Amino acid sequence: MSQQGIDSFTRSMRKSAKRKGRRGDHALASVMKGVLIGASITVICVAVFALLLSWWDASDRAVTAINQVVKFVAILAAVATAIQHGGGPMRGCVTGLLYMTMGIVVCSLLMGKSPDMMAYLADLGMGLAAGGLFAMILTTGKAA
Predict the structure, then answer these.
(1) What is the pTM of this model?
(2) Who is most buried in 35, 98, 105, 137, counting CB within 10 A?
(3) Of the candidates 85, 92, 90, the residue with the CA atom closest to the CA atom of residue 35
(4) Residue 126 in contact with residue 70, Cβ under 8 Å?
(5) How far is CA 108 from CA 39, 50, 65, 89, in A?
(6) How confident is the model over 105-118, as a mean pLDDT?
(7) Closest C-alpha to 42, from 126, 129, 87, 104
(8) Which of 78, 76, 121, 73 is nearest to 101 (CA)?
(9) Dmax over Cα atoms in the chain, in whole Å?
(10) In sequence order, which ranges of 56-114 are alpha helices (DSSP H)?
(11) What's the pLDDT at 4?
């Protein structure tokens, strides 16, 4: 192989490595941006819901149901943000899982008690499944 051929090969390998690095960085940045969007939506919804509860005497079942709806809406927004520039169900799963993990950690710190592992494992499973499902739905709509 000539020196020119080796130089060309070396340049193309460097370009390929740079592209791969950027894609990986972009994926992580997209996931983190999605998680932060989801967390922001959660904070806003919880604040509005707390104001509503000062006027409305809701049952524990209603509060639990509304909290679940808030989580699903936040995961949907987080996944939509994370896969906006590419990505699929795996990125959605990671986004949903990280969103729920962050929520569990923040909730545990605010409550000041050790977490109920079964409830938190259920929440993590919900985040994983919902994130993947929302990503599948959103990416299927893009392909059509």
Answers:
(1) 0.78
(2) 35
(3) 92
(4) no
(5) 15, 19, 20, 28
(6) 82
(7) 104
(8) 121
(9) 81
(10) 60-82, 89-111
(11) 63
In one-letter notation, the amino acid at residue 44 is I
Residue located via tokens 């990503």: 135
Nearest partner of 33 among 91, 89, 108, 72, judged by Cα: 91
Query: In whole angstroms, what is the distance from residue 99 CA to residue 68 CA?
Result: 14
State whether the Cα torsion 137-48-38-116 is positive or negative: negative
Cα–Cα distance for residue pair 99/38, rounded to 1 Å: 7
Burial class of residue 19 in the structure, from the number of CB atoms within 10 Å of its CB (0-12 exposed, 13-18 middle, 19+ buried)? exposed
CA distance 54 to 71: 21
Q: How far is CA 113 from CA 58, 67, 104, in A?
A: 25, 20, 11
Residues in the chain: 144
How high is the mean pLDDT of the chain?
84
Tokens of 130: 């919902």
Q: How far apart are alpha carbons 94 and 43 in whole angstroms?
A: 21
Q: Output the pLDDT for position 62.
A: 87
CB 66 within 8 A of CB 109: no
